Amino acid sequence: MRFAKGHGTENDFVILPDPDGGLGLTEADVRLLCDRRAGIGGDGILRVVRTRALGEALAPSARTAERTEWFMDYRNADGGVAEMCGNGVRVFARYLLHAGLVGADRFEVGTRDGAKEVTVEADGDITVDMGRVERLGSSSAKLADRTVDGVRISVGNPHLACEISVPVAGVDLRTLPVLDPEAFPAGANVEVYNEVGPGVLEMRVYERGAGETRSCGTGIVAAAAAATPPGEGATWRVRVPGGECTVFLDADGARLRGPAAIVAEGETSLV
């Protein structure tokens, strides 16, 4: 099986080209591929499949993806299926360009949250139109060393974005956050952030199904949305342990801009 390895602000993925949808990828396969000692290593899997090969497997929430040629079948490192991944879309788009599967500077990628427009910027960054961002009220999370309050945000997947008054580097994110099961029946990503300058946020994240990661694209958008007064637009630079992305928020939704790179290609016998 051919594979590639890529990352967006050090949120890293194993990329599996499966254009005709013939790969029976199990949860055990995903966990092994993402294992950093016994496998290739990554925060998740990006399966590159033609949308038409999925047929009736598309969920109703992904129906706008039917118009796209390529679908990003994203799996978390624990084998679970995820609705959306902002860094993943950028890396997926970089792979399509790298492999010669697309040739334009603007195209759409299919996801379980529908079609996402991608733009390749002149400096090589990739911008993804993330669509509407929803504020769903407040909730809290119990972390290893504290309880934090935050805003429930949907970026196609669930988030709790928590502004804190201490540096984010000092927060213990080594253990699974405890969430309100009524607010988050399927779990959620939890972000801690603070504003460190005009238009600049620092953020760390515990990703559902992966643990703490160096970056999370939807989490970056969620933190920016939580830091923006409802009904207002804003531009935020968001710093994460793996680098920096920019979020543009307006009445039409959110756009996420940042780097994406393919760092390796090879063959694996793990699947």
- The helicity comes to 10-25%
Proportion in β-strands: 35-45%
Count up the domains. 2
Average pLDDT confidence is 96
- Could you give the order of the helices and strands? EEHEEHEEEEEEEEEEHEEEE
CATH structural class of the largest domain = Alpha Beta
Sequence stretches where pLDDT stays below 50 over 5 or more residues: none
Active site: 85 (proton donor), 85, 216 (proton acceptor)
Catalytic activity: (2S,6S)-2,6-diaminopimelate = meso-2,6-diaminopimelate
Family: Belongs to the diaminopimelate epimerase family.
GO biological process, one term: lysine biosynthetic process via diaminopimelate
Q: Could you characterize the architecture of this molecule?
A:
The relative contact order is 0.18. The protein folds into 2 domains: 2-129 and 259-267, Diaminopimelate Epimerase, Chain A, domain 1, CATH 3.10.310.10; 134-254, Diaminopimelate Epimerase, Chain A, domain 1 (Roll). The protein starts with a strand and ends with a strand. It is mainly beta. The radius of gyration is 17 Å and the shape is globular. Strands 5, 6, 7, 8, 9, 10, 11, 12, 13, 14, 15, 16 and 17 form a 13-stranded mixed sheet that branches. A 5-stranded mixed sheet has the order 4-3-2-1-18, with helices on both faces. 12% of the residues lie in helices and 44% in strands.
